[in-house]
Specification:
With 395 residues, the chain is of the alpha+beta class. The chain contains 14 helices and 14 strands. The strands form 4 sheets. It has a 6-stranded mixed β-sheet, sandwiched between helices. Strand 3, helix 7 and strand 4 form a beta-alpha-beta unit. Helix 8 crosses helix 9 and helix 11 packs across helix 12.
């Protein structure tokens, strides 16, 4: 599975295999599926409507702090974060506007009214407005904002909003100032609650169990995609969507792999990078092992990478600039003669993680933004020796 698709897959609502779709989780335990399935699944508690209401209130506070009068959210991850609504995007606009003061409102195609009403009832006091096929949703938004005296204020646009939506709003409501909503949306989503952290931990625990189990399936002559399919099946046994990037041998020296499919041979490095999604919250874990006996050089590199990961974790504290965490890991690797800079450790140390596998903010040189309690990141140093092997550890 391609690196750029596995996390998209894991962010989807779990697609169960035929086995799981027709079998209860209690029955699975009696079929010799991983005995940890029930134990781990029992810890999963969904995000509540009260938690989402608290998120909306936090967003309103940030709107006040940044002088943003309302924010617009299309269907997608951020809308789901604030409301629990799942809505796919099309050429027909479905969106929520959350004002700093007053109740939220939605605009929806008229023929989708029943489905939209069903979903928007999750949002306290929200009003649903609809537009017919020969009408403009942007004119409808203009009418509502004018009635609420917001037509000449600042509207924050969520960063994944499609250009044609922003363009049509700007053309239709010339008096409206469009600004970035990222200070609000990232300001909320990047600070994880205790419940969110627990869901991430469960996703990590599932990933650990799946990766450990998968190692016993390694065999001479296996293709990378064969192991990938086995691991995806094991994720489905836990009732979650998940996947993995599998790299064998020299392919491991390329952080996101190569197009060519590699076959497993004795003495090959095996690199697994993947995860799953639990109630929308992702894991992203990398483990590097070997099929056979490691060389002295492999052992040496593995130990250096592990020391770099530990140094980064030790450095990461509230109010420390994000770039300092990257620097701590990079120094260990450079001091071990695998430098300078990006020569062998070719990428940043880490990325934010939440309801998306990669989100705000990044542990990278140049990011002086202080860490905040509740931020969550991957910690993934690596050393990549092209033509030989690569080793990455990620938690």
């Amino acid at each position: 599975m391609h690196r750029r698709t596995f996390l998209k897959t894991s962010a989807l609502t779990a697609t169960l295999s035929p086995l799981v779709a027709s079998t209860s989780f209690s029955q699975l335990a009696s079929q010799n599926v991983n005995p940890k399935v029930n134990e781990i699944r029992e810890r999963i508690k969904p995000i509540t409507s009260e938690e989402r209401l608290e998120r909306q209130q936090r967003a309103r506070k940030l709107m006040n702090d940044f002088d943003i009068d309302a924010i617009l959210l299309e269907g997608g991850t951020t809308l789901n974060y604030f409301t629990g609504i799942s809505w796919g995007r099309s050429e027909r606009l479905f969106a929520m506007i959350l004002p700093q003061e007053g109740d939220a409102f939605f605009v929806s195609p008229k023929f989708e009214e029943s489905r939209a009403y069903e979903q928007t009832q999750k949002v306290t006091n929200a009003k649903l407005y609809t537009w017919e096929e020969d009408e403009s949703p942007y004119e409808l938004i203009k009418k509502i904002l004018t009635e609420r005296k917001l037509h000449d204020k600042e509207l924050g646009i969520e960063e994944t909003t499609r250009y044609f939506v922003s363009e049509n709003i700007a053309k239709t409501i010339g008096s409206l100032a469009l600004v970035s909503a990222t200070p609000v949306t990232a300001g909320c989503r990047s600070i994880k609650s205790a419940h969110e952290i627990e869901l991430h931990q469960i996703a990590n625990d599932i990933t650990k169990e799946v990766f450990l189990s998968s190692i016993s399936k390694l065999k001479e002559g296996m293709k990378e995609n064969e192991l990938g399919k086995i691991i995806s099946q094991q994720f489905s046994e836990f009732g979650v969507g998940g996947g993995v990037l599998v790299l064998f041998g020299k392919a491991s020296a390329h952080p996101h792999g190569l197009v060519e499919e590699h076959t497993l041979n004795e003495g090959d490095i095996v690199l697994l990078d993947g995860g799953c999604s639990v109630e929308g919250y992702a894991s992203d874990v990398t483990r590097t092992t070997i099929f056979g006996t490691p060389t002295e050089k492999m052992n040496n590199v593995w130990n250096i990478v592990r020391k770099a990961q530990d140094a980064a974790l030790k450095t990461a504290k509230p109010n420390i600039p994000a770039e300092s965490v990257d620097a701590a890991a990079r120094k260990i690797i450079s001091d071990a003669n695998f430098g300078p800079d990006y020569k062998y450790f070719t990428h940043r140390l880490g990325h934010g993680i939440g309801m998306e596998g990669h989100e705000w903010y990044y542990l990278v040189r140049g990011n002086k933004r202080p860490l905040q309690a509740g931020n969550m990141f991957s910690n993934e140093p690596g050393i990549y020796i092209v033509g030989e092997f690569g080793i990455r550890l990620e938690d």
